[in-house]
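Work Package 3 (structural annotation) set out to generate three-dimensional models for the target panel prioritized at the project kickoff. During this period the team completed the workflow that converts sequence records into discrete structure tokens, so that structures can be stored uniformly alongside our sequence database. As a representative example, we reproduce one entry of 877 residues exactly as it appears in the project archive.
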Amino acid sequence: MEIPSKYDARKVEAKWYDYWMNHGFFHSTPDEREPYTIVIPPPNVTGVLHMGHMLNNTIQDVLIRRARLQGKNACWVPGTDHASIATEAKVVAKLKDQGIDKNDLTRDEFLKHAWDWTHEYGGVILEQLKKLGCSCDWDRTKFTMDDEMSESVIKVFVDLYEKGLIYRGFRMVNWDPEAKTTLSDEEVIHEERQGKLYYINYKVADSDDVLTIATTRPETIFGDTAICINPNDERFKHLKGKSAIVPIANRVIPIIEDDYVDVEFGTGCLKVTPAHDENDKNLGDKHNLEVVDIFNDDASLNSYGLQFEGMDRFEARKAVAKTLEDLGVLVKTENHTNKVGTSERTKAVIEPRLSDQWFLKMEDLVKPAIDAVLKTGEVKLFPKKFENTYRHWMENIRDWNISRQLLWGQQIPAYYFGDGKEDFVVAESLEKALEKAREVTGKSSLQANDLVQDTDALDTWFSSWLWPISVFDGIRKPNNEEINYYYPTNDLVTGPDILFFWVARMIIAGYEYRGEKPFSNVYLTGLVRDTQRRKMSKQLGNSPDALKLIETYGAGGVRVGLLLSSAAGNDLMFDEALCQQGKAFGNKIWNAFRLIKGWEVDSSLHQPESSKIAIKWYQSKFQSALLDIEDHFSKYRLSDALMTIYKLIFDDFCGWFLEMIKPGYQEPIDSKTLEEAIAILENNLKIVHPFMPFLTEEIWQYITKRNPEEALIVSKWPETKAINTELIEEFNLASEVISGIRNIRKEKNIAFKDAIDFSVINNEGATKTFDSLIAKLGNLNAISYVEEPLEGALTFRVKSNEYFVPMVGTIDITAELEKLQSELDYTEGFLKSVQKKLANERFVNNAPEQVVAAEKKKEADALAKIETLKSSLKSLK
């Protein structure tokens, strides 16, 4: 089988992915092996592959492929999230293009359009993950709106309601006027924005007095139901018990007193708008104030806004300010910076709004999840620094607003049967609800059409918090074989931005519904940024096309490029040059393989001593690297694991080992060396495979004809064995000797084809283990051990050993002496400057330990070099 001269990722990747799929290598079923389970953080069904997905899923694939090689029953469950807000927005936009208004459709009609959209466009990202090489168990693909997944969500809602943990409340919530739904506190991003502070005069009723309030939102004056002053503020004692008149609206409102008002802020007088500010609502409840809601659900003004009715809030702000100015009651405006809440999904400015919503009590539910991370360590976060963030969120948790005013999602299973909002039952189905309603009311005549289901949908996170359980049907069937085998899962790989949204809530759900953790380890990746440290975004145009990168550099090149610089929890500064480096690494491995396969074999040849020792050395070097790799994996330092592999292959295998065993020009290799070299190559492929799966499988299958069960993807991870550290240390000395010989050859133009003599004064007492290799790689006639320096020889030093190469050909002795003397003079001068620094007690006592150590090393190196130069000068004189 002819091996192509170049590795072509485009030809190879689809071939091996299909091969793995056709032979079921990604699929897992429970058996006697130890399970290793990962559940994918389900990307939005609306999503397409971006750099964050590439990083996150590459890490998961590395972990799952390694576990598979370790003989574990590796199961990676893929799937997508229905993403209520994002998907509904996409469907509404598509309907609008078709001239259809969402509000003209029934719920069922809209959901049909949503499902049609999902079937046509949803799940694209999962297909794109295949291009990256992700070895998910595609037979297990889940969608959070699948029937069994939705049943699980509804079952949990009913259970929590019956436990008294879910309740309905009229509360101030975060309203997204673009998506027209409420959001939880965690879905609101607070941004600093430049605005204005408006100072407005309110007339005091039955008086010529005025009072001035300061507000950032003059459009909300139509919702004012009181002015509040601090009872201890001497400036406003005369206003106690009086009323004020709202400008433009001319509505009379009371002046109340409360020490909530900060006498230092603004004017000391506070306008109270209970319908549009949480703190104002608390004041309103305390003082029994009227609540006036002035906004429609799209944040335009309603009829309370008088002549501004129908105007968008921001347009109304300008118009109201102009009218106040015309009336002579706008005293002044000032620039003012304040924090504005925006929707994580739509980026719209959030409007505080009073609304009937469903809430989940969190105070008791959260306790086992706090203990699991912060006390018992049952769940470990990598890096550990995120424990502080976790602690802050969990110890300050508020009740979770779980209802959304959306159609796409699991519909809340509350069924109303009377005239009031309190007349409802909660049940898993209409049939069960009817039974409950008949029981509650005592009316056996009640029929299904007498019940009306709540129109709200559940927060998307309320389905995804069950993900590690529901993907194995552990809610509906809590004792089924799969949940008992695969749960708890092993590792979760995700971003720190959803540590609370998703990770913490899954831990809460795990303890509530399984009585144990959902996973053991959480690997939190950093954000992918550009080289200017900017977050990647479409708006900035700095986010590369993920699929184009794969097409250009191959999946392996992109995977290596991403992981070479992505330490856990630290942001990745992505540079496309890293992908080129990854591709070059793949080419290096390919060319090394081609070199080995290109050697002619002579089975009659005996294995040379140089090859024997080279193999022993590399096997020890490999084992040493393997130990480091295992340690890095245990600490989720995948970047470090890859770098260890990279150096092993690039430097030790390609840079040294292949040179050590390579036969002479146009000469054959012995069969034993070749056999052992291929075994070494195969071990290399195994440790590279999780990072570069396609390239390694291609080489593996080229090495020899193999049956499917012998494919690399299901081969065996190398075992750790004893390491001959002495051999490694001896080679370190030998490699410096070889480099010294090569430097002399280069400097003196001694062709490599010309064999040279070589002598050693062995002050180090070094073994002769690597002499055969030194002779081969230096092309030496022989290595002789001497007691005295050789006269008229070129010399160099490694540690305290002196090495001599007799001069070959004609060398200008005078020029050589001048060069050596000049180098000696410079080195002696350098030594004096270093020793002067070390003689300075202030420097030695105050400088960092590593700085002092570096100076001492400079001193030792200079002394050794001076000795070598003097020896060289002596031999030439």
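The chain has a mean pLDDT of 91.
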